[in-house]
Amino acid sequence: MMTEHLSLKKGYIGRTVFVIFTYVFLTLTMCAMVLPLIKVLVDSIDPTAYGLRLIPRKVDFVAYESIFKNKYLYLPFVVSVLTTIAGTAIGLFLTTLAGYVILQKDMPGHKALINMIFITMLFSGGLIPTYLTVKHVGLMNNYLAVILPVGLSAYNIILMKSFFESIPSTLYEAAEMDGCSPMGIFFKIVLPLSKPALASVGLFIAVSMWNNYMNFILYITKPEMTNFQVKVRELILSDGISGTVLSASEEMLKSAVVVVVILPFLLVYPWLQKYFVKGVTIGAVKE
Asked: pTM of this prediction?
């Protein structure tokens, strides 16, 4: 009895130490991620913030006013918002449609099509062939050149196909018996049941669209068509918009544009989290 009691006591102590270590580790990890965000936020609203101060002494939103009043930053911000909205809608439509198409096992060339999609997950044509292709099809300085490569990815197609496979096949069969066409099944049955997958894949696409930088550098040469992320990089790496020596207001502006870049998805993600987790995990395990 004494030996069993000591064994249980050691097990309890071990679990307690593990729980304490886990909480300490996760707390330090959270601080490492959150404190830089707080610092950037404080720098964007406090003109006197220097060093490692995390509490503002003075609140001034002049930097944010400059972003939405200065044409140099306002127009790129609008471009980022519009391309993100349009790109997410186009990407979701193409991804769900592609996932539904490769779900049709009786379609001629079904296996060849799936293999082609899998190959693109492992290999790509490369930067130069992709650039030459975009140039020869006439998509230079066209927003489709920055939307299509991000909106349609093999990973999202496979993820959507896996979700569609989790929908009971009896629903498809019942719809076919009622005379519903394949596209009718897609719009009336598949899409209404795919909200978790649409939310998760839509979040993937939206984040990629919002952070789209390289495609704008490669395919957009007109300054008035560039997006907010390109201007953020130019602003942070330069000495300010006017090219003069940095001042406190310019430091605030740099911090403010960083906040504007990350804030939208910090606000959106908590509302989509429940769909995001379900959409990513469902269909991953076969019964």
From this structure: 0.77
